[in-house]
Amino acid sequence: MATKVLMPQLGESVTEGTIAKWLVKVGDTVNKYDPLAEVSTDKVNAEVPSTVSGRVTEIVVPEGETVAVGTLILYIEEGGTAALTEQAAAPDAKSAPTSVSVSPAAVDAAVPAAGAEQRAKQRFSPAVMRLAQENGIDLSRVAGTGLGGRITRKDVEKIIQAGKQQPVPTAVPTQPASAPAVETEASAAPSALVAPTAPAANVTYDIPVASGDQVVPVTLIRRTIANRMVQSKHEAPHAWTMVEADVTNLVNYRNQVKDEFKKKEGVNLTFLPFFIKAVVEALKEFPMINSTWAGDKIVVKKNINISIAVATEDALYVPVIKDADQKSVYGIAKSIEDLAARTRAGKLTMEDMSGGTFTVNNTGSFGSVLSMPIINSPQAAILSVESIVKSPVVINDMIAIRSMVNLCLSLDHRVLDGLICGRFLQSVKQKLENIGPDTRLY
Asked: Per-residue pLDDT for 286 more than 60?
């Protein structure tokens, strides 16, 4: 009996996945729960386990191809008694969403003025939205071939290759609300508030390759990072500001307690937990910093979930410390070590990567003293903590050697202004400079 293996749904908002690598070949014998393939999505990589024991008889989807959730990818001739039906493998009608929520700003960029009410009922995956925006595709005129008529990336790619849609205009005359809607090319385009189409991060360039040059293929993870960075810089008007903090007392205190802390807790006490603790306390004072642009509104997040950057050999991942404002310095340190270890072991889950509301980037770990980070969309701001360096500082008209650090903030100027960001940074600075022997670690 042949069992159909379908593309699984790797997360609530994931509607498609790419077969990054097959871990089996036709003729292989597999046991239940053995990994069959590595699948890459817009959010995370994961292995697809076998649902039965048996022999692989046919691989339907080749490596590198992107398909919708529920698409047949593999046949296994079952060798056991427990057969998994296609209905059991596929997401059921109640649990499988036929759409994925994306930021309202991104939805606005693809919703035609004349069909706004109709398009509000259908949402698109981030990959589909980016591809449509990058190539000027009007999604209201695309027929979806995915489950429930959902538009997949392959649908958009076919239109791009066929060249049947012209890029949408970037400016449209404003029509009075009382005027009847007229179906024209102009009315089918995004509103005048939509920014010009972003350059595609996956565009190929005619770059000469000389003898001895090394050509490095772009991995799926690197391409995802590139697309997100282009999207962030294109959609969010970045502004930047910085303050300098005297963390001499923090350095002295941490040096005094780090060895005992490591011995007692088994966790390294780095400087980063102290910085994150100061940030989350300041976010409670200035909740607007912990918000998201949503087109016609700004969503101020109740939960404070801090995204942190963790580098591996080939990519940069951004796992999330959930409810960071409810954690002590010790709790934050433990969360950082756990997330970093699972990132480097390739064991991050969808839950680990989702829900961030503000990002703290530890660029000082590799010696940087000044940086201008790109906002982790759809968040409103990102803070880079630079390297702590000893510098001559004037205190009471005298020169002293102090441990100084630069705190660099990039902000979405649609949401935030310099005044509130300046006050937020001053609050972080004050909290850091007040750390000392009385600071609680638990």
From this structure: yes
